[in-house]
Amino acid sequence: MANLLKKAYNATWGKYVFAGMYDKFLSHVEKHGLAEKRAQMLAPAYGRTIELGTGTGLNLPHYPEAVSELILTEPYPPMVSKLEEKVREDPRRIQLTVAGAERLPFPDASFDTVAAAMILCTVPDPRVALAEIERVLKPGGQYLFLEHVRNRDPKIALRQDVVQLGWYWFGNECHCNRPTLDTLAESSLEVTDLDETKMPGAWKFIEAMAIGRAVRLPDDAPAKKSVNAKVSVGNAASEDSGCGC
Length: 245
Fold this sequence. Notes:
36% helix, alpha/beta, disordered C terminus
């Protein structure tokens, strides 16, 4: 029954609304500052780079010239169709691979940079995804992330819990209330930079956002230290000015 429901969802809402209207859904927050936050996330990218859960390719304009090779991955067929259109029009040489973040078809230690925007809220198990990210990173390589996260305000976090079930179906299995920063801190990756900010123009229950950089420790490094990342907090966003996921 669950598989039948998922197939029906993918063939209707998933294809024509979620994927079909994704760029339009995010256009409000993109022009109110999310595009700049994507650029902030990707500014340190360099070398052989892979993006996980690329979606419709909203990060593509923000990759710096220091990226020598770009591989995009996306597991959701309706999104892949949209992404293929943008890749064909991009003048750079880009490889597109249909794959999920928890099982990447690439060798160990094969990338300088892994980038991902708003995927740990959606993957079935973010711990598995983080372990896979660490696996494909070279020792000393970096993971660049942009995630909407569980709000540190308990009242707003409670609202996230209340709306989660409906949001899960609206946002194609997105979990707006996941404690993603805690999960990152518990992983083997070391967070070196962290900006706790807000998604501009987003609804209150999804406005809490984290942008940062984590590294895979060199093989001969001592055990991971406690997180001592640089943290900054952005300005408040309007509660009822838009929507983004």
